[in-house]
Design a protein that fits this description.
alpha/beta, Transcription Regulator spoIIAA, 13 helices, six-stranded parallel sheet, Rossmann fold, 434 residues, single chain, 4 domains
Length: 434
Amino acid sequence: MEFQKTVAFNTLGCKLNFSETETIAQLFDQHGYKRESFKKLADVYVINTCSVTETANSKSRYAIRSALKINPEARIVVVGCYAQLKPDEIANIEGVDLVLGTNEKFKIIERLTELEQTGIAKRIYSCEIEEVEQYNPSYSLGSRTRSFLKVQDGCDYKCSYCTIPMARGKSRNPQISQLVEQAHIIAQNGIKEIVLTGINIGDFGKSTGDNFLRLIEAFEQVEGIKRYRISSIEPNLITTEIIEHIAQSRKFMPHFHIPLQAGSNSVLKYMRRRYDTKLFANKIYEISQKIPNAGIGIDVIVGTPGETNDLFEETVLFIESLPVSYLHVFTYSPRDNTDALLIEPKVNEKIKKERSNRLHKLSENKQSVFAKNQVGKVMNVLLESKTDTVLMSGFTENYLKVSLPYNQKEINTIRLVKILSVNDEGEAIGGYIS
């Protein structure tokens, strides 16, 4: 009997990384590899890294060392943003065999084969990010209920704190027809929800002369997909037409995730964001007016250079004034080769932590208010997973997580559910409508 090689994956960072890991995993499937859990013995370990903060870099290094502890003889392949930005740093970690940059990660089988034939270890395949022009399609099929579909890659923005354009390259996208084809494949696999992912998906169309509105209109026609979500979209790229389309759509969920980053115009200028607080607030209120029960999440960064106590208080007051549902709070981390390093004053780590804690509490309050406003409403819930021996969970259209009595047959079904109550953690309890 022929020995079957095994491969294990560890993905850090954004939803786009998860989508791309699945595509890489499918390449291994096609070449006869068996997938294993990352905690189990495998012949090859692939770590898809993130580099948005120094913590992300540290987690990536920890994942590499964890794989080597499980199997010191395994091939270790590192891909992702960290691999593009600091390939030499990764290659210097003992036990790493391959470091593949943005242009190379989907050639992973080819590079592994070359490595086996030559026996040369620690080979780096990377190029200058300006040379990256190819778009590589990706979508995930690992979940029974939800797929992450990559619709765009790269970013042409030059935010002062961010290395993503250096790691991902310029904004690019495929033809709409290709993405619709991929959505059909996802539907054929029984998946009911697609999350549209990318680096700056509102910028869709630059490569092809299309736009994001035409893309979401095309997705409406795919049979079998019951739900679409937009992973994140820049406030300056949310048009009235996009909001109105989602307001009347039966497939695009009333759920937006929008990066704010700071609620102070001074800090937004330091960051080189492409909007001010007035534009941001106008977009939030337009969504709330046209889609009254929409779930709206926002990203915020605390502790960026130049953020004084007074400017942080502006951010707090601004967020308090907005009808948003939850916050994702990030702590600024200095990144090499970014202009934010030149901005003063710097914020010390203790103050960063205090500011982060305040915004996390504000998020909990917003989330609790949003959840309590749903009590008594009847909503569609896509049931996804078992939470314990007696409960399972799913999400409403507007992205409220709901716990319900467990029934295995209900997984990957959409059921009418009445929101009965909300616990102290802001989690909703629901009951089936028969």
